[in-house]
Amino acid sequence: MPVGTAATVKSLCREDLEGLGAQIILANNYHLFLRPGSSNVKKLGGLHKFMNWPHPILTDSGGFQVQSLSADDVAMCKIDEDGVTFRSHLDGGSLHRFTPQIATKSQIDLGADIVMAFDDSTPPNATHARTLKALDRTHRWLSECIKTWKSSSSKQTDPPALFGIIQGGTYPDLRQQSARFVIDCDLPGIAIGGASIGTKAQETAENIAFVREMLPKNKPLYAMGVGVTPSDLVSVIKAGADMFDCVAPTRLARCGQLYHPEPKTEYLDISKSQFKLDKKVINSGCDCSTCTSGYSRAYLHHLFKAKELLYHKLATIHNLRTMIRTVEKERSQAIITV
RNA sequence: GCCGGGAUGGUGGAGCGGUCAAUCACACCUGACUGUAAAUCAGGCGCCUUAGGCUACGUAGGUUCGAAUCCUGCUCCCGGCA
Hints:
- This protein has helices at about 15-20, 30-35, 40-45, 45-50, 65-70, 100-110, 130-155, 170-185, 200-215, 230-240, 250-255, 290-295, 295-305, 310-335; strands spanning about 25-30, 55-60, 75-80, 85, 95-100, 115, 160-165, 190, 220-225, 245, 255-260, 265-270.
- The chain has about 350 residues and is an alpha/beta fold.
- Among the domains are: about 1-115, no CATH class; about 255-335, no CATH class.
- The two termini are about 25 Å apart.
- The protein binds one RNA strand of 82 nucleotides through helix 5, helix 11 and helix 14.
């Protein structure tokens, strides 16, 4: 899932995304709640109409933002047993509140196809006690999300799917406890997020495989925030993940890192002066429109250095297509195996 | 020809007697990036591998304990008048 936090996959339009073979994109409840406002999006006919994307959309609840924003600045938000009071990063601090009910309602207003439970995402360095607390809260909040989702779904002709999120951080006992709880809720899909996802590819794969074992075969497993490089995707897919998203392909593209089958880094740094006179395309084996059209490394280097807007589009197309092609390849092989 | 202003590191441009290897910006180089406060952020950026040393603010001298900073000659640039 390409990440489109603010109802846009940065620098791309719908036609670009369709050309990449993107089937579903991700948007963010926290950001859209603050701007332009979930109720405004609802008035405009929902997210699909608003952003001109007639294909599936998953919204993240905002649980992750609560954690990542407060990690930088503790005054930005306060967590209590019922929810989170946070300051907007847009206007210097106006106060807002998310509870499981509000976060779920907001996502339903946005009109997402898949809505995520509002969780207390565990920071990577959390102690066992802190992780346990986050876990209890996440589970309690999940029950509240389910109530809001069910009552709202009964009034809709085409209700969204709700995914629960497994927490548990770096502690196997807590992860197992969380997996058990979330699976027993019998939701349309399950996600694993926060620190429980791990930071190393091997670790992440093990954690995913662990949950996959416990999960019924017909339930999709979503690995949140995973996939910095193509090889990450392969390892996570093999471990049993069905869905994933990561800001890396789009962000790395904007920062000059273009995926390339380099053994070490898996990308070229197009900002390097070594590309100044390089007539080759980024990756001759790539089927993205940037490569097949013949845009050279020298040209992309120039656009990057000159801070030209076209760079972002060409680079983002390349990185996202590389990721989607990786997934397509794995999918076709998986079908043969089955 | 006369009068006035100026020459600082890759570039623009601070500094106007010691705390100056020299604010800052740009450029350049490194590195980061995991449910996007990211066209972002961090570090480096005269030479020597460091404590430290060496060479430097157009150029040649001078004043001073001490000069990028003050004085003089020269070279070049810019403006005004001829």
